[in-house]
Amino acid sequence: GQPTKRLLVEKTKGPGVTSPILESMPAVDMGSVEELIKFVAWVKERFPAKRYLIDIWNHGAGWRLRANGDLATPQDVSYDDISRNKITTEQLGPAMARIKGILGKPVDVLAFDACLMAMLEVAAEVSDSVKFMAASQENEPGDGWPYDKILWRWARLLDSDGKAAVTAMTEEYVKAYGPGGQFGQRDVTFSGWD
Fold this sequence. Notes:
The chain has helices at 33-46, 89-103, 120-126, 147-155, 162-176, and strands at residues 4-7, 21-25, 53-57, 63-65, 72-74, 76-77, 87-88, 107-113, 130-135, 191-193.
C-alpha cells in the first residue's frame, strides 16, 4: 500500500496541499482500532490541547436489523481497502475509554464523516468517554463534509466548547447540500448532540 503521511494542516498558502509532512511511515491499517488509539496518543504528545475532536472518516454502517428483522446487530466504520479490516461499533466504546485515559479527560467531540453513524446505539457505546457526538443517521453523499467551511468556522471557535463545534459542523454540512450549496442540493441528515 501507499505510505501514510502525517501532516500539520495549515492554512493554504497557494494552490495544492502545502501543509508540511511531519512523519512518513509504511501504510497504516485504517481499520485497526489500535492504530486509532496510537494516533491519538501521538497527537496528544506532540500537540497537547484543551479540547480534542476525533473525526472518523470512511464507510460507516451503524447498526442494522437482521434480514429476518429479529435483532439489531452492530456494524462497522473505517474500512481499510487494503487490509479489509474495520473498526466495529463494539470496539468504539473500549477504544474511546482508552483514549479518555490517554487524554486524561473525555473526548470533547467524536464525529463521523461516514454513513449511518448517528444512532443511539453507537452513542451508547461511547457515552462514558465522549462529551458530544456528530454524524449522519442516513447515507452521506460521496462529497462528505465541506471541510473548508467547517475548518473556517472551527478556527473562530477555539475557546468554545464541543457544543459550538457540533453546531457549526451541522450547520455547514446542511448548508453545503441545501439550495445553492457547494455540493448541489440533496436531501441529507446530520446532527450533533450531548
